[in-house]
Amino acid sequence: MAKRGLYANIQAKRKRIKAGSGETMRKPGSKGAPTKANFVRSAKTAKKPKKKK
């Protein structure tokens, strides 16, 4: 079973925050926050949106 990706984790955390979990997003550059390299690597495997006909 494949692990969830970076964007899936971000969306899940935003959903929990909106629901009132009390969590906060990490600030850029803090320990454990995704780096620019993480976003570049995840963009390589991102699914392309389907074109409408």
Can you give keywords for this protein?
53 residues, 42% helix, single chain
Q: Let me know the number of strands.
A: 0
Q: What is the number of helical segments per DSSP (H or I, 4+ residues)? A: 2
Radius of gyration: 14 Å
Summarize the biggest pleated sheet. Answer: none
The low-confidence runs, each spanning 5 or more residues with pLDDT under 50, are none
Q: Residue share in helices? A: 40-55%
Along the chain, the helix and strand elements come as: HH
Oligomer: single chain
Mean pLDDT: 87
Structural class, by secondary structure, is mainly alpha
What would you say this structure looks like, in words?
The protein has 53 residues and is mostly helical. It is 42% helix and 0% strand. It is built from 2 helices and no strands. The protein has helices at 6-18, 36-44. It is extended and about 40 Å long. The mean pLDDT is 87.
Summarize the entry for a quick read:
Helices cover 42% and strands 0% of the residues. With 53 residues, it is mainly α.
Topology overview:
Blueprint lengths: L5 H13 L17 H9 L9
